[in-house]
């Protein structure tokens, strides 16, 4: 390295290293790690001839950006996450489906309490995902009748659920 590069690198260090170090400590909370990041940032500046050719004051934002990217890379690295390899993959925990089972049994019992016409419209519309027109076509009834049966069927279903102790 020519002597002028040495002086520019020294000037770069004197002008920016303390502020970059404080910035990295602020980001990471790790003074020892900040030393490494500042050293790597200065190394990258030294390897980049265009950075050394600029005035030290104009490289400040470049150094902060490089330091920030190095912190991000370090946080994302496997070394930082302390990953430990294992021979067998652990079993996945399963969600407790007991409440969902009881809720489905309550809904099934409440639906069974409805008359056939109301139950058929509700099952096609909500469980079958059909539109009013599709329900009307499948059950061979007018769309207005589907809407009416849905309204009164849901009202009856709500009442049946309340009788079973489900409140909302």
TrEMBL record:
GO terms for molecular function: DNA binding; sigma factor activity. CDD domains: Sigma70_r4. Keywords: DNA-binding, Sigma factor, Transcription, Transcription regulation. Residues 106-157 form the RNA polymerase sigma factor 70 region 4 type domain. Transmembrane segments: none annotated. One of its GO terms (biological process) is DNA-templated transcription initiation. Residues 12-81 form the RNA polymerase sigma-70 region domain. Gene3D superfamilies: 1.10.1740.10, Winged helix-like DNA-binding domain superfamily/Winged helix DNA-binding domain (1.10.10.10). NCBIfam families: PRK09645.1, sigma70-ECF. Belongs to the sigma-70 factor family. ECF subfamily. This is Sigma-70 family RNA polymerase sigma factor.
């Amino acid at each position: 390295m020519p002597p002028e590069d040495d002086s520019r690198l020294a000037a770069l260090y004197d002008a920016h290293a303390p502020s970059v170090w404080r910035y990295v400590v602020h980001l990471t909370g790790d003074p020892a790690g900040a030393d490494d990041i500042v050293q790597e940032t200065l190394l990258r500046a030294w390897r980049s001839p265009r950075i050394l050719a600029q005035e030290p004051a104009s490289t400040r934002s470049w150094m902060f950006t490089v330091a920030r990217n190095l912190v991000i890379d370090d946080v994302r690295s496997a070394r930082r996450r302390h990953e430990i390899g294992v021979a067998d993959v652990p079993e996945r925990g399963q969600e407790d489906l007991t409440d969902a089972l009881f809720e489905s049994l309550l809904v099934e019992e409440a639906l069974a309490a409805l008359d056939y016409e109301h139950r058929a419209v509700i099952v096609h519309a909500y469980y079958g995902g059909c539109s009013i027109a599709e329900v009307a076509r499948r059950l061979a009834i007018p769309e207005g009748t589907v809407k009416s049966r849905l309204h009164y069927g849901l009202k009856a279903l709500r009442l049946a659920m309340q009788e079973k102790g489900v409140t909302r």
